[in-house]
Amino acid sequence: MTSERTYHHGDLRRTLLTAALDVIAQDGPDALSLRDLARRAGVSHAAPAHHFKDRTGLLTAVAAEGYTLFADALTDAPDLRERGVAYVRFAAGHPAHFQVMFRPELHRPDDPGLIAAKARATEALRAGVSGLPDTARGEDDRLAGIAAWSLAHGFATLLLSGNLDAPVGDRDPEDVFRVLAGLLFPQDPGVRTPGSS
């Protein structure tokens, strides 16, 4: 006989997402299985399918949630340099989301929630680039955007994988990123950002 909690779990969707994020953070997205998540949540092995349909649906939900949080973090930053810092901060604070978001083979690219969240994040990055002085932006806003994205994403990825432990040392990674961003995207001399001296 199935236990009562199988049917009356509360917010099972959130519980499953949280459990999935724990698994991904510890073992990576390839270790994720709906059966294991059901066991962790104390529900029948079929219960996760009611919320996500399958593993890809669950990973799509993780990516959509990640992009939503990511867009919020970027939008609150005042300029491109601080949007890059927010990018790095997001990756460090949400490593499981970060791992899934940028692996499109893991999720459904036609999911409306994912599409909307990605569009918001993309627009937040573009707004940062359009705020640069013309001399820092160059002739092509799109290439400037790719350069900014590459710097922030590359730094965040290297930071998460431990490859920057020695070069960064005991310095704040956000301050290190600000210095690097200043090398590639110098600002007008009169503009000061948090962390600048």
Structural overview:
The protein has 197 residues and is mainly alpha-helical. The chain folds into two domains: 8-52, Arc Repressor Mutant, subunit A (Orthogonal Bundle), CATH 1.10.10; 60-184, Orthogonal Bundle (Tetracycline Repressor, domain 2). The protein contains twelve helices and no strands. It has helices at residues 4-7, 12-27, 34-41, 47-52, 55-75, 80-93, 95-101, 112-130, 134-137, 141-160, 165-168, 173-184. Helix 8 (112-130) crosses helix 10 (141-160). The longest helix has 21 residues, at 55-75. The protein is elongated. Residues 1-8 and 188-197 have low confidence and may be disordered.
Summarize the entry for a quick read.
This protein is an all-alpha fold. The chain has helices at 4-7, 12-27, 34-41, 47-52, 55-75, 80-93, 95-101, 112-130, 134-137, 141-160, 165-168, 173-184. It is built from twelve helices and no strands.
